[in-house]
Amino acid sequence: MPDPFAPRPEHKFSFGLWTVGNRGRDPFGDAVREPLPPEDAVAMLSEAGAWGVNLHDNDLVPIDASPSERDRIVAGFRRACERHGMVVPMATVNLFFDPVFRDGAFTANDPRVRAYAVQKTMRAMDLAVELGARIFVLWGGREGTETDACRRPDDAIKRLREAVNFLCEYSVDRRYGLRFALEAKPNEPRGDIYMATTAAYLAFIPTLDHPEMVGVNPEVAHEQMAGLNVLHAVAQAWEAGKLFHIDLNDQFPGRYDQDFRFGSANVKSAFWLVKFLEEVGYDGPRHFDAHAYRTEDYGGVCDFARGCMRTYLVLAERARRWREDREIQTLVASLGDGDHDAPAVSAYSPQRRDALLGAAFDRAALARRGLGYERLDQLTMDVLLGAR
Ligand code: GCO
Ligand code: MN
Ligand code: MN
Description:
Layout: E1 13-16, H1 17-20, H2 38-48, E2 52-56, H3 57-60, H4 67-83, E3 90-92, H5 111-130, E4 135-139, E5 144-145, H6 153-173, E6 179-183, E7 192-193, H7 198-204, E8 214-216, H8 220-225, H9 230-239, E9 247-248, H10 267-280, E10 286-288, H11 298-324, H12 326-333, H13 350-358, H14 363-368, H15 373-384
Parallel strand pairs: 1-2, 1-10, 2-3, 3-4, 4-6, 6-8, 9-10
Antiparallel strand pairs: 5-7
Helix pairs in contact: 2-4, 5-6, 9-10, 10-11
């Protein structure tokens, strides 16, 4: 019998080169795995059943490569992708590793650093387009502070806006057709990062010159690091038409930046998220931005990658069961209905105003009625735990 949880191209599962290529270095210990050449990463991901591979400019091309080295590396990588039937749906730029970015990139105080960051990003956009990517992620990992003595945060926002506006014009000018996805994170590697949450970016985007070109890339762990509900962030982005990309992984709140295998820490949150993405018909890449435990060799890295996709598909199947469960659906159908003659709120009109102002409400009766959410949640748990 074929595996019902086998990944297929239509699931659009993708991984960053930096995810399977993560060598397990942490602030307390050195690398535990040998470097994984990008072409080997493509082979591994394709073997595991992924559809796409994403990259930062410097995951592929070293920061000081000459133009001819760059072209040779990129050509080799394109051939590897073709050979293994892998696409590059998204690319991004590394504006955090090199010491030049220690005070940030687009928001750094030194105008030369800001200019270099924009130059590096334009070149990364050239690379993205050459590899066929349609989405360009911007993660401002170093755009932040340890001390707010260094600049006023509203100046940082202005600098960020200037850079994103410039990059949008570059895409228009070169007819690249890229769509930008802004990724928020509350902290790490900086003490505090500007635009700490997806919601902050959703408020920033309408202030840009080309808001239609810019959306968000919410990451599960980044919202959870801040103790937030990632589903709510993703849903707000979706409802605003701004869910251009998503970074799936996992994280226990209040800990270091864990980047665990998707669904491995908060299975119930992962369930609601998968259920949402499947129900609304999100059809962008399902990107896993996570890495294997430091205990693993490359066999374990492959297990990690397979595990991310499998858990997603298992949860999607559980979500289907949830939708098809008669008892659950009866409860769901009864939410917020009931026989009532309350006037609808809907759009304002003088008639609705008068109807609402004149209506009589039995507040005490409304507050007495049990809502049945305990039952509904336990049924959810039964579905999730395989007891139904
Ligand atoms: C992190 C971030 C990054 C970005 C990546 C793409 O916490 O390190 O999630 O992995 O997603 O740099 O811009
Ligand atoms: Mn992250
Ligand atoms: Mn990420």
